[in-house]
Amino acid sequence: MRANLAINAAHAPNLAAHFGAHVVEALIDEVTLAPKPGLVDIRGRGAHHDLDWQLMCASALALQPTFVELARAGIETQALPALRERIGAIGRDGEARMFDATGGVNTHRGAIWALGLLVTAAARNPDDLAPRAVAARAGSIARVQDRHAPAITGNKGEQACLDYNVGGARGQAQAGFPHVVDVALPELARSRSRGDSETAARLNALLAVMASLDDTCVLARGGPDALADLQHGARRVLEQGGAAALAGRRELKALDRRLVELHVSPGGAADLLAAALFLDRLQREALPTTKA
């Protein structure tokens, strides 16, 4: 990989900008997708009172320089400990940039972590952009300790991990994003192969993640009962044919109503869908040097 990195370093600005733009496109694709149960989308706020589509898009665009910097770090920094600390600092600066853009509202903290690791990993070896390979490299980075990271951040997802003994976003990343490569992407491929629309395929991928993920956004706001409702409802949609089927759409509407009623929003699943869309975009770009 040293030779590849040396070659890519000469083209680092263009390559980093290319990958950073793909991340932002994935984030905007995710938030625009509708109808997503309990989540902000092009229709409305979902279960949120402080978020909307316009704010989420503004946040994603404001974060593009952060994702470009993360990709640049992946190209330039070979040693994993140094890379982990460099991207940790970039990510914390990105959070500050996000809060400046949103007036203090947390729109994309989880996405900065997940997509930040993945864009770093993609740029680290652009000769192998197969989703599983990129996710595995991201997991290797995530498992390295950042000496400068705060021991406790105080965010609700972190507290939910402690309260309910789940891995959360950190555990998902350190495991190589299994809900992305083993759940979301296969469901996306299955739905496409049977002729579902792209919207329905993406919704089904999201629902497949919701059906089994211990989503800390839901646990933090609604506890285990709300998580059980989410997982059961997502499975029902898929069992009834998914978002492309009339019966599935009825179940999807019912799940949306239930989550809004509970005031819970599966933001962890949304972040993983964005991650899946990013990896899918890289793979489908079909660069000559990309392995299938």
From TrEMBL:
Keywords: ATP-binding, Nucleotide-binding, Transferase. Involved in the formation of 2-(5''-phosphoribosyl)-3'-dephosphocoenzyme-A, the prosthetic group of the acyl-carrier protein of the malonate decarboxylase. This is Probable 2-(5''-triphosphoribosyl)-3'-dephosphocoenzyme-A synthase. It catalyses: 3'-dephospho-CoA + ATP = 2'-(5''-triphospho-alpha-D-ribosyl)-3'-dephospho-CoA + adenine. GO terms for biological process: prosthetic group biosynthetic process. One of its GO terms (molecular function) is triphosphoribosyl-dephospho-CoA synthase activity. Its EC number is 2.4.2.52. It holds the Pfam family CitG. The gene is mdcB. It comes from the Bacteria. InterPro entries: CitG (IPR002736), TriPribosyl-deP-CoA_syn (IPR017555).
